[in-house]
Structures are given as structure tokens and as C-alpha cells.
Amino acid sequence: MTQKPKPLHSIKVEGPIPAHLARSVIEETLRSAILDGRLPCGTALRQQDLADLFGVSRMPVREALRQLEAQELLSVTTHKGAVVAPLIQGDAAETYELRILLESEALRQSIPLLTEAEHQLAAGYIDELEAQHDYNEIGRLNRLFHMALYSKAPNQRLLRLVEDGLNEEERFLRFNLEAMGLGKLSQDDHRAMLQAVIERDIPRSLAMLEQHLNRGVEVITRYLATPAAQKRHTAR
Q1: Which residues have C-beta within 8 Å of that of residue 98, sequence separation ≥ 6?
Q2: 3-state secondary structure the chain
Q3: If you average pLDDT over residues 170-195, what whole number do you get?
Q4: C-alpha span between 148 and 84 (Å, rounded)
Q5: Among the listed ranges 56-60, 94-98, 122-126, which one has the minimum average pLDDT value?
Q6: How far apart are CA 129 and CA 140, in angstroms?
Q7: What does the pLDDT average to over 165-181?
Q8: What is the pLDDT of residue 182?
Q9: Going from the N-terminus, what domains does the chain have, and what CATH number goes with each?
Q10: Higher pLDDT, 26 or 186
């Protein structure tokens, strides 16, 4: 009988981890594995298994799992403990409504403080997106583009909430973008938004961001209603 592969076997740990770095190393390692799909949705992450894997006590593992739960990459259930959270599903509209509120405020705060360096960084991400055919990379670059525009917002708690939403979208795009056929959809929006940001036209920038995110939720909602999408998500 063939044994079912264990997701934790996909995680490689290099040598002993210094005690003062344990929590951050565990958090970043698990975060990367969740985002790239090595730890699929619904995977239970047990503290002792992780402590054995990383060669540490359960305390830094517990702290790392709390951080990932705060980022909405994990959810805690009664019987399984920490479980890799599901991707965007039927609540896509509500998710994007919240993103519009948070990202609009982050962009409003950030625009007056952005420099040419951030403008060029964002433009570079657009150029990479135009040339990119790897769907995993498209999700990552999309997140980096948006965060480049929001990065100077002084409210750090707001920025963490914004990045949590972008992380969730990145995970969804990694697994669904090819089936959705969205690879080249966003670049006109991105370029127009960046131009408004460079001109420090806050009302136009916010209107374009809202239009961009609303277009995204329409496409995702339509996709999730298709039999093919329902089959993919049921299988996960």
C-alpha cells in the first residue's frame, strides 16, 4: 500500500537554528511553504512535529504559529489545532470590500511620502509582470507592486493588515491564475494607477485602485461560480 506523502517532508531545515532566531526562522519557513503550496490548505500543523523538524522546543513553534494565525495563513480548529487556512472562496466580495477600505487608506497615507525610488521600484515590478509567464511569480510580483505603493504609509498596523490581504490573494492566484486566464489583465490598471500616484493625484489614484480591485472581485467571483473552479476547490 502506497503511503500518503507528508507535507512537512517538503520542508528542509539547514543545520541547528540559534535560539534567538528560532521563532522568526520557523515563521518565515512555514510562511513560504504555505504561499508556494508545499503546505496545502487544510494541512494540520502539530506543534511537536514542527519542534522535532526544526530541532527546537515547542515555545518558538507556538509563537510562530500565532504570528501566522494573525496573518490569516493559519486557522485554529477544535480537533486539528493549527490548520493551513483555505483560499479565497465564496466570500470573495466581502474580502475585496475590506481590501478596498484598507488599501485605499494605505495609499492615501503613502502617496505624499513616496519618492522617485519607490516609483521606479513599482514601475520595475510592472515591467516584470509584463514579461512573466510563471503564474507563481505573477502572484508574488502583484503583491510587491501594491506594497511598493503603500510602503510609506506611517500606520504600521494598517500596513500589516493590507499585506495579510495581499498574501491571501497571492495564494489564491498561485493556484488559480492559469485556469482563470488572467495573466495579462492587470497591467493597464497598474500603469495608470502608478501614473496617478507619480502625479500625486490622490483622488484619481484612489478611484483607480477601487476600480482595479472591483474588477478583480468580479472576475474571481465569476470564476468561483464555474463548475471547474468548484471541482478544484472541493478537491483541495
Answers
A1: 165
A2: CCCCCCHHHHCCCCCCCCHHHHHHHHHHHHHHHHHCCCCCCCCEECHHHHHHHHCCCHHHHHHHHHHHHHCCCEEEECCCEEEECCCCCCCHHHHHHHHHHHHHHHHHHHHHHCCHHHHHHHHHHHHHHHHCCCHHHHHHHHHHHHHHHHCCCCCHHHHHHHHHHHHHHHHHHHHHHHHHCCCCCCHHHHHHHHHHHHCCCHHHHHHHHHHHHHHHHHHHHHHHCCHHHHHHHHHC
A3: 76
A4: 27
A5: 94-98
A6: 10
A7: 76
A8: 55
A9: 12-84 (1.10.10.10), 92-235 (1.20.120.530)
A10: 26
Amino acid type, 40: P
What does DSSP say about strands 44-45 and 74-77: parallel, antiparallel, or unpaired? unpaired
Q: Across residues 168-193, what is the average pLDDT?
A: 74
109, three cell numbers: 497615507
Task: Categorize the per-residue pLDDT at 9 as very low, low, confident or very high, splitting at 50, 70 and 90.
Answer: confident
